[in-house]
Amino acid sequence: MLIAANPLRERLRELQMLALYRSGRQADALSAYEQVRRHLTRELGIDPGRELQQLHRRILTRVPCL
């Protein structure tokens, strides 16, 4: 899996989260965000980028355009 080989690539997580959400798996999409957030914090001491944070908020609020 690409994500396992590249755990710090936020774009891959964005695509994964979007696919999960569009498949009706909101909880799994939110879990994927938490996984990458923890990993980035632990490995690099940073928070996810703006795009990933925005997607997370959109999934939480179930924005229709997703």
Describe this structure in words.
By secondary structure, the protein is mostly helical. It has one domain. The chain is built from four helices and no strands. Helix 2 runs antiparallel to helix 3, helix 2 packs parallel to helix 4 and helix 3 runs antiparallel to helix 4. The protein is globular.
Summarize the structure.
The protein contains 4 helices and no strands. The protein is an all-alpha fold and 66 residues long. It has one domain.
Class of secondary structure makeup = mainly alpha
Proportion of residues in β-strands:
under 5%
Major sheet:
none
| Total separate domains | 1
Number of strands: 0
> Residue share in helices?
over 70%
Low-confidence stretches: none
Please give the radius of gyration in angstroms: 11 Å
What is the string of SSEs from the N terminus onward? Answer: HHHH
Distance between the termini: 24 Å
Q: Overall mean pLDDT score? A: 95
Shape assignment: globular
Number of helices: 4
Protein name: Bacterial transcriptional activator domain-containing protein
Keywords: Transcription, Transcription regulation, Two-component regulatory system
Pfam families: BTAD
Organism: Streptomyces lannensis
